[in-house]
């Protein structure tokens, strides 16, 4: 490690003040991505602003037809939340399948969304559910938030304060996970909100999370796994690496989409 200063503000407002004052400062949430990155010298902030004591970034509440999740909520808190389990069980299921218990008890929804790892689970839920990412400065629709590999619409000094998920009538998630890291080789989140169907795929896109319009159109006719019969995702534009080539990942997109719809419909 190398020298950096450590700060632990008591609110997101104080954190924003520190971020504005310190040059090359970085926010620290669960640290599950940031600390390994610093150890590998891929990031070298001069100051760490730890959000761990910011009470205003914690908590999960239902507000009308939405679920509001504080940015510092851990994956375990989302998975175990009675509110999330009741309103959007597919989201609780997703959170319960992130990494292992250590990761779930340290990693946060804000950190995961801000990091936008192409194999992370939450980006698929945000995009499929039509979530709103709320920062200390503005509200950003998920459609506009995930802009590329590890890229988001966040600007310098912007802090995610919460993620707002609309309560939909049906939602489900299925992932084929890398057995070592548990990240998604392919993960698919499906959501039905009135006549609006959204299918979002993580782990497979060269540019990160993306929607699959052909599956959305097929499911619009009837929201059932059978509606996807014969539908294949092309391998063009799909990731290939030592774990799976593009053809295999493309095949998994179809399989995971069927499983996610089956979970959402209880069939
Ligand atoms: C072994 C292992 C297995 C994992 N498996 C999975 C998996 O299966 N699925 C999955 O989705 N993820 C997985 N993860 C990732 C993990 O779930 C964390 O979500 C992820 O590392 C980032 O969250 P964090 O809270 O640790 O953020 P940090 O590492 O603290 O921060 C990550 C980045 O986001 C920024 N940031 C953090 N919070 C905010 C905020 N509120 N506003 C603005 N910027 C912010 C930081 O500055 C940093 O750049 C795994 C991680 C590990 C180590």
CATH topology of the largest domain: Uridine Diphospho-n-acetylenolpyruvylglucosamine Reductase, domain 3
Instruction: Trace the largest sheet across and list its strands.
Output: 4-5-10-6-7
Helix content: 25-40%
Note the total helix count: 11
Assigned CATH architecture of the largest domain: 2-Layer Sandwich
Low-confidence segments, given as residue ranges, are none
Strand content: 15-25%
Domain unit count: 3
The overall strand count is 14
Coarse morphology: globular
**Sequence of secondary-structure elements:** EHEHEEEHHHHHHEEHEEEEEEEHH
Write down the overall mean pLDDT: 96
Bound molecules: flavin-adenine dinucleotide
The Cα radius of gyration reads 18 Å
Protein name: Carbon monoxide dehydrogenase
Domain FAD-binding PCMH-type: 1-170
Organism: Bosea vaviloviae
GO molecular function, one term: oxidoreductase activity
List the helices and strands and how they pair.
Blueprint: E1 5-7, H1 12-21, E2 25-28, H2 34-39, E3 47-50, E4 60-63, E5 66-70, H3 75-80, H4 82-87, H5 89-96, H6 101-106, H7 109-115, H8 122-129, E6 132-135, E7 139-141, H9 142-145, E8 146-148, E9 151-152, E10 160-166, E11 170-177, E12 184-193, E13 196-202, E14 210-211, H10 213-221, H11 246-265
Parallel strand pairs: 1-3, 2-3
Antiparallel strand pairs: 4-5, 5-10, 6-7, 6-10, 8-9, 11-12, 12-13, 13-14
The structure holds flavin-adenine dinucleotide.
Residues 26-34, 51, 71, 75, 98-99, 103, 107-108, 110-112, 114-115, 120-122, 154, 159-160, 181-183 line the site of flavin-adenine dinucleotide.
């Amino acid at each position: 490690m190398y020298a950096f200063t450590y700060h632990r503000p008591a609110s997101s407002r104080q954190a924003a003040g520190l971020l504005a004052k310190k040059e090359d400062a970085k926010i620290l949430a669960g640290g599950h991505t940031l600390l390994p990155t610093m150890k590998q010298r891929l990031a070298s902030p001069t100051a760490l602003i730890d959000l761990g004591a910011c009470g205003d970034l914690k908590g999960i509440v239902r507000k009308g037809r939405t679920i509001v999740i504080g940015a510092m909520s851990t994956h375990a808190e989302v998975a175990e939340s009675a509110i999330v389990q009741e309103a959007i069980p597919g989201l609780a299921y997703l959170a319960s399948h992130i990494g292992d218990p250590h990761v779930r008890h340290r990693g946060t929804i804000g950190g995961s969304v801000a990091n936008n790892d192409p194999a992370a689970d939450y980006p698929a839920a945000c995009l499929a559910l039509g979530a709103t990412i709320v920062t200390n400065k503005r509200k950003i629709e998920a459609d506009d938030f995930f802009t590329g590999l590890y890229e988001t619409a966040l600007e310098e000094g912007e802090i995610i304060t919460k993620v707002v998920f609309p309560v939909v009538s049906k939602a489900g998630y299925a992932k084929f996970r890398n057995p070592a890291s548990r990240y998604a080789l392919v993960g698919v989140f499906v959501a039905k909100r009135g006549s609006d169907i959204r299918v979002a795929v993580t782990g497979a896109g060269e540019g990160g999370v993306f929607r699959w319009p052909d599956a959305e159109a097929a499911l619009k006719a009837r929201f059932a796994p059978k509606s996807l019969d014969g539908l294949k995702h092309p391998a063009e534009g799909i990731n290939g690496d030592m774990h799976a080539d593009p053809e295999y990942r493309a095949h998994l997109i179809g399989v995971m989409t069927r499983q996610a719809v089956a979970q959402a419909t209880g069939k």
